[in-house]
Write a structure and sequence with these properties.
With 77 residues, the chain is mainly alpha-helical. The protein has two helices and two strands. It has a two-stranded antiparallel sheet with strand order 1-2. Strand 1 and strand 2 form a beta hairpin.
Length: 77
């Protein structure tokens, strides 16, 4: 019985060490990877200006006039 308990304790300890090492390596790779922080900052900081189109419950388009001009194109045969 004691051998089973010691086996389970060692198994849990080994799993915890593996998880800690995994997360430490992942964290170090994020720190050392070039440009990972700059990409996130560029993505969050830059907003493209343009026309925003919203749809109401009936499916009709609601266009913000302040943000730009909306042009609806149709294909002609």
């Amino acid at each position: 019985m004691l051998a089973v308990i010691l086996y389970l304790v060692n198994l849990i300890r080994t799993l915890l060490v593996i998880l800690i090492v995994f997360f430490l390596i992942r964290w170090i790779v994020k720190l050392l990877s070039p440009g990972s922080n700059s990409r996130q900052k560029d993505h969050s900081g830059s907003k493209e200006e343009g026309t925003t189109i919203h749809f109401n419950k009936k499916g009709e388009k609601i266009i913000d006039k302040d943000k730009g001009e909306y042009v609806d194109f149709e294909e002609i045969d």
